[in-house]
Write a structure and sequence with these properties.
Organism (chain B): Agrilactobacillus composti DSM 18527 = JCM 14202
CATH topology of the largest domain in chain B: Rossmann fold
Number of strands of chain A: 4
GO molecular function, one term (chain B): ATP binding
Largest sheet of chain B: 6 strands, mixed
Radius of gyration of chain A: 19 Å
CATH class of the largest domain in chain B: Alpha Beta
Structural class of chain A: mainly alpha
Structural class of chain B: alpha/beta
CATH superfamily of the largest domain in chain B: P-loop containing nucleotide triphosphate hydrolases
Chains: A mainly alpha (291), B alpha/beta (260), C mainly alpha (319)
Pfam family, one (chain B): BCA_ABC_TP_C
Number of domains of chain B: 2
Number of strands of chain B: 10
Largest interface: A-C, 43 and 43 residues
Helix content of chain A: over 70%
Oligomer: heterotrimer
Protein name (chain B): Branched-chain amino acid transport system ATP-binding protein
Shape of chain B: globular
Distance between the termini of chain A: 54 Å
Order of helices and strands of chain A: HHHHEEEHHHHEHHH
InterPro entries (chain B): AAA+_ATPase (IPR003593), ABC_AA/LPS_Transport (IPR051120), ABC_transporter-like_ATP-bd (IPR003439), BCA_ABC_TP_C (IPR032823), P-loop_NTPase (IPR027417)
């Protein structure tokens, strides 16, 4: 029973990581950038949801969708202003710029809205259901189900739509994609919009779950979500989802065993071990350079 | 002439595909041998197996050393094999692009002129002494190939033909016993190829080393090679002197198409 | 031979001159306590960033865990100087920190340096985080609160001397035969192996060397600031060091000096802006990267030798 309980907790936490990891992996897949600011987009999503619910008294689902739209726009703007001018620069330069954007969003929000945490409005009353010794809340179910629905939607967009096909083409070979008439810039913008929308959804849901948001809330989950993406095999959509769930489960398991102080250390240790065994992540294919 | 490199039943499977199977060949002292065959015959894979970039599935490769007789090369790291006297060039030029011509050559000399970690921090007089000697050796080597004026040029800024030449010089700087050239004339015009032909002969004579060369340019091969191995579908199809190969019906059918 | 002696003497002269100048400025009051503080932090950042530049810019390996090694140096120096609060204690602590960092770099480096690019970055980041979490949970390091009230054994003079010494060693290393082998790994690993270069050995050597110099930076940090906590050595610190390297120009030691100085001064100026400081800092960072993507100096290096030769040429042309 205890194990089942931890499984439920781990899966709902993991689905948040998975949603964030998807954004990292999509952006990485298409422009080979570790978008350091992604965790902060998630923070912005939480704040937007907070204002929508508090000021305009919208319901949870409306707030969720509005946050997704808001974050999609932010993602596109960030890409346009900060990353697009550096399209042909070394990747490490774009990475530093992404770190700069991350600092800017964190500190800008701290400056404008103070850095102290605030309570996220209870847009949905938390219920706990008990099944024997098993306890599960409606919010946990909501997070898990919403995340899975969003992941299925994402998979459909990527596999079935023209834009999705363009995304896959650009991630394999941007130059060839351009030659067959794909608008690479639009495709990249679309990728940022998609990834950021998922981050926005994750932000609102985590606000509801933990009931507290602050301008630096994106830092640690952002890094862990990136670790999740690498763990699963960066650039691979199923890999990101898998990695997210693995990390969520590892964290809750370590915590349940009474080593909560070493929770993050365990995540990193597993990451290093997996990378040493499978250098391209769990689902990644190791490619050898041709001589 | 004694056998310098002995390859026995060498096999490499990639998944279910045998890229190289049961190849037997040998290279003798100061010999110029060519390896030919249609595209995809496994020539470069064979090079990679011998120089250690790829690990063989079966078979053995052994090299005669000065002190310890025949030494098995299988399973040794590429840098060890290079250190033992096998040097190579690459089909798609792999120079140290961002470095000067001189540095490209000097890097090849490091394995035979190792220095301690501590001595590299302190720049003792001996450091400058060795450094001056290596620099002189490198420039002399470049001079043999008329490239001494380009010593300070960044490798990637040189014309294509010069880059190919530098790759050969860089390999020679490791003081090899055997030099493996992977399509040295690829992308060259007839004049450049003629110059290269002369260069390869010059290397064999001046350095007294053995050369194994993969090449598609038949005029070059028939011109310089003393012996030829023909590879097809990963298997050895024929072996012999240029005259024998040209007269070999199987080779003519499989590869030359009668049109040499 | 004699020529080399001359260039080395000139470099030594420049170093001594810098030291004298700072002393004079301090004497006449141009450099006050506040500015000295900045100077020390710039110096420590230079030590940290030159080591990371060796790893990233010269051996071509993307490490994102430099702060982990800095932490080892800082804690070793702090613990030793708490017990032996003398200069000797500082030296002992620093040496222990360097050895510790070297050993840890070896343990981390041998398995992870087989990874490429971003995978290596994330693995080294993870390793540094593990070091930090261990420091948070150990008794001897006083957990998350860290160590405080450390004796102030580092001053700007010592920092200056160590900047000069580590830079000389690093630059010598880069320009040695071993250094050339390290460059070849960055340029083309497969070709390097085929030329007899043991690429793993040289990658690890650069990583260990960088880790050991980071420990020196950490030791100076501990005994200058006098307070350390595990969170001083988190991912953000690794990133701050990385920023200096990239902003200066990857592969340019001169650039590392310039960027460390520029960021230090920028930080000093922004102190007056209070809460807006970090906002302006991040904006500056983004703008510098967008408008100077190759870094301040690209791969350009200041060279006394070149300067001399150019002057000689000019003189010849003039005559």
């Amino acid at each position: 029973m205890q194990i089942l309980q931890q499984l439920i907790n781990g899966l709902s936490l993991g689905s948040i990581y998975a949603l964030l990891a998807l954004g990292y992996t999509m952006v990485y897949g298409i422009i080979k950038l570790i978008n350091f600011a992604h965790g902060d987009v998630y923070m912005l999503g939480a704040f937007w949801g907070y204002y929508m619910i508090n000021t305009f008294h919208v319901g949870f689902w409306t707030a969720l969708i509005l946050s997704m739209i808001f974050c999609a726009i932010i993602g596109v703007i960030v890409e346009f202003l900060a990353y697009r001018p550096l399209r042909d620069s070394p990747r490490i330069v774009v990475l530093i710029t992404a770190i700069g954007v991350s600092f800017l969003l964190e500190n800008g929000m701290s400056y404008l809205f103070s850095s102290s945490p605030r309570d996220f409005p209870q847009a949905m009353v938390m219920h706990r259901y008990h099944l024997g010794s098993l306890s599960i809340s409606n919010v946990q179910v909501l997070i898990l189900v919403t995340s899975i629905v969003l992941m299925i939607l994402l998979q459909l967009i990527i596999k079935r739509t023209r834009m999705g096909k363009a995304m896959r083409a650009v991630s394999v070979d941007p130059e060839a994609a351009q030659l067959i008439g794909i608008n690479v810039d639009h495709t990249i913008s679309f990728t940022f919009a998609l990834g950021s929308a998922l981050a926005g959804a994750a932000g609102v849901m985590i606000g509801l779950y933990y009931n507290s948001i602050d301008p630096l809330m994106g830092m640690t989950p952002g890094i862990k979500a990136f670790v999740a993406a690498v763990l699963g095999g960066i650039g691979l959509i199923p890999g990101a989802a898998l990695g997210g769930f693995v990390i969520g489960l590892v964290e809750t398991a370590v915590q349940a065993m009474g080593f909560s102080a070493f929770r993050d250390a365990a995540v990193y240790a597993i990451l290093i071990v997996i990378l040493i065994i499978r250098p391209a992540g769990i689902l990644g294919k190791t490619t050898r350079e041709k001589v | 002439m004694a056998v310098l490199l002995d390859v026995k039943d060498l096999t490499k499977n990639f998944g279910g595909l045998a890229a190289v199977s049961d190849v037997n060949m040998h290279l003798d002292d100061n010999e110029l041998v060519a390896l030919i065959g249609p595209n995809g015959a496994g020539k470069t894979t064979l090079f990679n197996l011998i120089t250690g970039q790829t690990v063989p599935s079966a078979g053995s490769i052994s090299l005669r050393t000065n002190n310890e007789g025949m030494q098995v090369l299988n399973g040794k790291k590429p840098y060890k094999i290079a250190d033992m006297g096998l040097a190579r060039t690459f089909q798609n030029i792999r120079l140290f692009k961002g470095l000067s011509v001189l540095d490209n050559v000097l890097i090849s000399m490091t394995s035979k002129n190792k220095e301690g970690f501590i001595s590299s921090l302190f720049r003792l007089p001996s450091f400058y002494k060795v450094e001056d000697r290596l620099r002189k050796e490198a420039l002399d080597l470049l001079a043999i190939f008329h490239m001494e004026d380009m010593a300070e040029t960044i490798a990637s800024n040189m014309p294509y033909g010069a880059q190919r030449r530098l790759e050969i010089i860089r390999a020679l700087a490791t003081k090899p016993k055997i030099l493996f050239l992977d399509e040295p004339a690829a992308g060259m015009n007839p004049e450049e190829t003629a110059a290269l032909t002369a260069t390869i002969r010059q290397i064999q004579q001046e350095f007294g080393i053995t050369v194994l060369l993969i090449e598609h340019d038949m005029s070059l091969v028939m011109n310089v090679a003393e012996r030829i191995y023909v590879l097809q579908y990963g298997k050895l199809l024929a072996e012999g002197t240029p005259q024998e190969i040209q007269a070999n019906q199987a080779v003519v059918d499989a590869y030359l198409g009668g049109g040499v | 031979m004699k020529k080399n002696l001359k260039y080395n003497a000139i470099w030594l002269g420049i170093a001594v001159l810098g030291w004298v100048l700072i002393n004079v400025f301090e004497g006449v009051g141009i450099i006050d306590q506040f500015a000295e503080n900045t100077l020390v932090l710039i110096g420590i950042n230079i030590i940290l960033a030159t080591g990371l530049n060796l790893i990233i810019g010269f051996s071509g390996q993307f490490s994102l865990g430099h702060a982990g090694f800095m932490a080892l140096g800082a804690y070793a120096a702090a613990l030793v100087t708490q017990a032996i609060p003398t200069e000797g204690g500082f030296v002992l602590g620093t040496v222990i920190g360097m050895l510790l960092a070297g050993v840890v770099a070896l343990i981390i480096g041998i398995p992870t340096l087989r990874l490429k690019g971003d995978y290596l970055a994330i693995a080294t980041m993870g390793a540094a985080e593990i070091i930090r979490i261990i420091l948070v949970n150990l008794k001897i390091t006083n957990g998350p609160a860290g160590l405080y009230g450390l004796p102030q054994l580092a001053n700007w003079s010592l920092v200056y001397i160590l900047v000069v010494v580590t830079t000389i060693f690093t630059v010598n290393f880069i320009h040695s035969r071993n250094g050339r082998a390290i460059l070849s790994v960055r340029e083309d690993e497969i070709a390097a192996e085929s030329m007899g270069i043991n690429t793993t050995k040289f990658k690890v050597a650069a990583f260990v060397f960088g880790g050991m110099t980071a420990a020196i930076g950490g030791a100076l940090h501990a005994n200058y600031i006098q307070t350390i906590a595990p969170n001083d050595f988190g991912i953000m610190e690794s990133i701050n060091i990385l920023i200096i390297v990239v902003m200066g120009g990857i592969g340019s030691m001169t650039g590392t000096f310039a960027a460390a100085a520029l960021l230090g001064i920028l930080d000093m100026i922004l102190q007056g802006f209070g809460a807006l400081r970090m906002v302006l800092y991040s904006l500056a960072l983004i703008l510098i990267m967008i408008f100077r993507p190759k870094g301040l100096l690209g791969t350009w290096e200041f060279s006394v030798k070149r300067l001399f030769n150019r002057n000689k040429k000019k003189a010849k042309e003039g005559a």
